Amino acid sequence: MRLFVSIDLPDSLTESVEAAQERFADAEGLRFTDPSQAHVTMKFLGDTDEDRLEDIDEALEAAIAAADVDPYDATVGGFGVFPSIEYISVVWAGVRDDGGAAKTTTLAEAIERETVERGFDPEDHSFTPHVTIARMDDARGKDHVQRVVREEDPDLGTFHVEEVRLKQSTLTNDGPRYETVRRYPLD
């Protein structure tokens, strides 16, 4: 099973994600994510044997308890890229600093600690709370992406975070398909 932990955006923000993607519509070389599957990846676990689900349960329950984060509101807005504005592979909208970023980061750091403690690979980069909206396959549209990222700062909306989810990702010819395996409430 190819697994990751996420905070899923509600269906009510799907149109906002689509509108954000439209700002990049003229950029060649971009592959847009499915707005209906928009989420904040908290931890990528990768290919995982099904018999490790108990370890994951324990890790996520311990992480939520350690983070001590009650349900909260998160605001998605603004644009950014990974790894840098000069070499773009991912285009994203962030969780705003004044809109839940600190709580999302606290939760992600606790998930990282607890999963690594149980033998999962550590992340090789620091956590940035974001929603991936596109991947850049080649640099043809780089100038357009750079301009939009530097000049535009849209709000995509605010939503209430009540849980994290363990998701299974199945790669298909039409892109990845995500399915919720388990839910872990914050309260």
TrEMBL record:
Protein purpose: Hydrolyzes RNA 2',3'-cyclic phosphodiester to an RNA 2'-phosphomonoester.
SUPFAM superfamilies: LigT-like
Species, as recorded: Halogeometricum borinquense (strain ATCC 700274 / DSM 11551 / JCM 10706 / KCTC 4070 / PR3)
Catalytic site positions: H39 (proton donor), H130 (proton acceptor)
Gene3D superfamilies: Cyclic phosphodiesterase
Protein's recorded name: RNA 2',3'-cyclic phosphodiesterase
UniProt catalytic activity: a 3'-end 2',3'-cyclophospho-ribonucleotide-RNA + H2O = a 3'-end 2'-phospho-ribonucleotide-RNA + H(+)
Record has Transmembrane helix as a keyword: no
Keywords: Hydrolase, Ligase
The keyword Metal-binding is annotated on this UniProt entry: no
EC number(s) reported in the record: 3.1.4.58
Chain span(s) of sequence motif HXTX 2: 130-133
Family: Belongs to the 2H phosphoesterase superfamily. ThpR family.
NCBIfam families: 2_5_ligase
PANTHER family per the UniProt record, alphabetical: RNA 2',3'-CYCLIC PHOSPHODIESTERASE (PTHR35561:SF1)
Chain ranges passing through the membrane: none
InterPro entries reported in the protein's UniProt record: Cyclic_Pdiesterase (IPR009097), RNA_CPDase (IPR004175)
Ranges spanned by the short sequence motif HXTX 1, renumbered to the chain: 39-42
GO molecular function, one term: ligase activity
